[in-house]
């Protein structure tokens, strides 16, 4: 375990949040961290007696999802870091989620227990077997109320299907299957069957020396159970239809924007690599995130994106130093709001950006304890890109590149967002008058 | 394009190459094993830097006689450079090959050492043909490192003296092929 000292606050490397995800109703919020733990928050029921505590999120369940493992055949350690969490839509009283590390996907059931059987005939209250000669009468156990207990149990373990590192998982709209994706392959699973998966995309070349691109993310279409998309390190997205063939090597749509030759540099390949791809809720658009931009694509138009948003273009002149300090490899995620009208993504210095697709306005906000007290309104931030720096602006050179917001999530219906800033989770809500 | 700018590009390319090599080497000891995506990106940067370094070296050498037009990386690419870059994309990556063995093969380190030693012999007598059968059907499996760097058209194999990586940076980077640099560290 590593301990970092920062501004006289220290945190364990294991506490760094590696993924955040609301469930489909927005009632639950899950976070995964580098130590392999999952923490689930539940929204409080709104009460008339305390209207100011409007639906706050409190810890509901904490469990160890993955442990560090060792692959003896390849002499490799397998990290326990949770790469992705995806919720299954709720079908009964229990909640189900998929969590994955680099190699193994697990299905977890989170259920509540508020009753306990008491009065067993053959064992006493501690669980010890009673001496049969002392039993003189028959009694039947009765369910008694108890303090609410939330327990998480691993219901399925989907393992041994990935040679390379898993970067994403996606649940199908049919609620029976899901895909897990690594650098070169996409595998299709049935949620009930753990000893078998179907490989549906394989871009591994016959000769590994000829490798030029890897898969960076994949997602099922939100409504069409036969359609999925995957993004590549070369900045392209492929849409595939599983009805065409068992192996979806031939895409049915290919989205790529031709490179602008005037911006070519040593690092053009790195900054064009797509770090996240997300379908819009209505299923008509795709959003992609590369190092400097977020792009919205219309599924009907393959040759260029519909919209391009500059996240932090002032970093374009600093790519060399960002390469040296490894920041250029950071994988930022992007999210849609519930109505697909606003998109959000993270940046450095604990900044995150929101773009309104209709008004074309954008805002930069900061997730930090110092700059925002609970229930205070977030103040928009601005980065000064040259010339005279105004009072509230921050210059590019003062940005803290160790404080990065890679993972964010948006409530499916309301304006509530969760933002992971290293080892801290920030939840922001719309102001209520 | 003046000799000074070519030299600046040369220095920059060399610096990026050195940074990339140290990153590639450090990633081999990273927890969780070698990351294919990261290794691929590193090798792409290394290849670009190496190409620029070679072309700026040629321009430096010829600038003494006459000023040769140079194609630096950061201006709009000319067709010549595009052709070279697209060639680089399609050409196999010897550095990537030895670097990304870890997901597939456990005794990566041993193979690299073997290829290092074998390579010395091969470099001393470049005309000696490898006795191993090579054909499309019997191409080396992808988990074994290739022992000779794949040459680009026009490139010659240099007889590199042993321990040349410890000598002056300028000489060592031109004469070492990429897949020797990693084991040499």
From TrEMBL, chain A:
**Which terms does the record give in the GO molecular function aspect?**
protein phosphatase regulator activity
Q: How does it assemble?
A: PP2A consists of a common heterodimeric core enzyme, composed of a 36 kDa catalytic subunit (subunit C) and a 65 kDa constant regulatory subunit (PR65 or subunit A), that associates with a variety of regulatory subunits.
**UniProt name for this protein:** Serine/threonine-protein phosphatase 2A 55 kDa regulatory subunit B
Taxonomically, the superkingdom here is Eukaryota
One Gene Ontology cellular component annotation held by this UniProt entry: protein phosphatase type 2A complex
Gene3D superfamilies in the cross-refs: YVTN repeat-like/Quinoprotein amine dehydrogenase (2.130.10.10)
The answer to whether keyword Transmembrane applies is no
Family in the record: Belongs to the phosphatase 2A regulatory subunit B family.
């Amino acid at each position: 375990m590593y301990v970092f000292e920062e501004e006289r606050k220290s945190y364990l490397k294991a506490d760094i949040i590696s993924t955040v995800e609301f469930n489909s109703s927005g009632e639950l919020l899950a976070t995964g961290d580098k130590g392999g733990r999952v923490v689930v928050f539940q929204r409080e029921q709104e009460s008339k007696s305390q209207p100011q505590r409007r639906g706050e999120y409190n810890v509901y369940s904490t469990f160890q999802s993955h442990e560090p493992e060792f692959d003896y055949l390849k002499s490799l350690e397998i990290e326990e870091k949770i790469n992705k969490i995806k919720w299954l839509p709720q079908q009964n009283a229990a909640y189900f989620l998929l969590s994955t590390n680099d190699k193994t996907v697990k299905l977890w059931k989170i259920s509540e227990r508020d009753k306990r059987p008491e009065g067993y005939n053959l064992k006493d209250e501690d669980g010890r077997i009673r001496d049969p000669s002392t039993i003189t009468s028959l009694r039947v156990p009765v369910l008694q109320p108890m303090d609410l207990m939330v327990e998480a149990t691993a219901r399925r373990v989907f393992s041994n299907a990935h040679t390379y590192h898993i970067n994403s998982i996606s649940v199908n709209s049919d609620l029976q299957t899901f895909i897990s994706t690594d650098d070169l392959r996409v595998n299709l699973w049935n949620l009930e069957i753990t000893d078998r998966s179907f490989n549906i995309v394989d871009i591994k070349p016959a000769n590994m020396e000829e490798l030029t691109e890897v898969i960076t993310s994949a997602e099922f279409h939100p409504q069409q159970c036969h359609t999925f998309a995957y993004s590549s390190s070369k900045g392209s997205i492929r849409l595939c239809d599983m009805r065409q063939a068992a192996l979806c090597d031939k895409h049915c749509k290919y989205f790529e924007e031709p490179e602008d030759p005037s911006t070519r540099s040593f690092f053009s390949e790195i900054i064009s690599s797509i770090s996240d791809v997300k379908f819009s809720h209505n299923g008509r658009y795709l959003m992609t995130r590369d190092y400097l931009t977020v792009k919205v694509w219309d599924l009907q138009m393959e040759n260029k994106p519909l919209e391009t948003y500059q996240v932090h273009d002032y970093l374009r002149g600093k790519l060399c130093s960002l390469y040296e300090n490894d920041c250029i490899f950071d994988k930022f995620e992007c999210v849609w709001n519930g109505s697909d009208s606003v998109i959000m993504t993270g940046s450095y210095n604990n900044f995150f950006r929101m773009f309104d697709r209709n008004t074309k306005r954008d805002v930069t906000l900061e997730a930090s304890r110092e700059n925002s007290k609970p229930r205070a309104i977030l103040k928009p931030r601005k980065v000064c890109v040259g010339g005279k720096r105004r009072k509230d602006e921050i210059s590019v050179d003062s940005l803290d590149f160790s404080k990065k917001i890679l993972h964010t999530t948006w409530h499916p219906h309301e304006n509530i967002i969760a933002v992971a800033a290293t080892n801290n989770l920030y939840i922001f809500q719309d102001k209520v008058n | 394009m003046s000799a000074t700018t070519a030299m600046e590009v040369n220095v920059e390319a060399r610096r990026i190459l050195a940074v990339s090599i140290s990153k590639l080497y450090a990633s081999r000891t990273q927890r969780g094993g070698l990351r294919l995506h990261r290794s691929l990106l590193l090798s792409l940067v290394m290849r670009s830097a190496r190409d620029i370094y070679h072309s700026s070296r040629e321009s430096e050498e010829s600038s003494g006689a006459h000023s040769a037009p140079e194609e630096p990386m950061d201006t709009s690419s000319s067709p010549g450079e595009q052709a070279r870059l697209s060639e680089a994309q399609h050409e196999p990556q010897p550095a990537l090959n030895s670097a990304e063995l870890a997901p597939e093969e456990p005794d990566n380190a041993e193979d690299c050492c073997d290829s290092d030693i074998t390579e010395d012999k091969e470099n001393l007598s470049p005309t000696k043909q490898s006795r191993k059968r090579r054909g499309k059907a019997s191409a080396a499996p992808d988990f074994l490192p290739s022992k000779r760097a794949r040459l680009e058209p026009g490139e010659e194999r240099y007889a590199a003296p042993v321990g040349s990586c410890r000598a002056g940076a300028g000489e060592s980077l031109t004469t070492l092929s990429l897949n020797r640099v990693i084991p040499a560290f």
